[in-house]
Write a structure and sequence with these properties.
Elements: E1 21-24, H1 31-39, E2 46-47, E3 60-66, E4 75-82, E5 85-90
Parallel strand pairs: 1-3
Antiparallel strand pairs: 1-2, 3-4, 4-5
Length: 91
């Protein structure tokens, strides 16, 4: 049985309520580490666990959480993707 995607609204972020959360393919321990990787020009990709859609060629906004389960999620962010690569991370 596949796990259900986590909803952002479950964690009190009402502005993003109902959005599917994604994981970064690399397990960044902090949002700062993620932002630094993007600033350095690394190609950072993400995925939705379970039955989420394929994000390998996606262009648009995604909602992120980390670090990966089973560790407790300590950071959340929204990001813009172009052709499956994260290009900007905010809040």
């Amino acid at each position: 049985m596949q796990p259900m995607p986590v909803k952002a609204g479950m964690y009190g972020n009402s502005a993003d309520k109902g959005k599917n959360m994604s994981y970064i393919n690399q397990n960044f321990p902090t949002k700062k580490a993620l932002k630094d990787a993007i600033t350095q020009g690394r190609k950072v990709r993400c995925h939705q666990p379970g039955l989420g859609p394929d994000l390998s060629e996606f262009t648009g906004r995604v909602y992120l959480e980390g670090p990966h389960y089973p560790q407790p999620h300590r950071w959340y962010a929204q990001a813009d993707m172009v052709n499956g690569v994260l290009v900007k991370v905010t809040g």
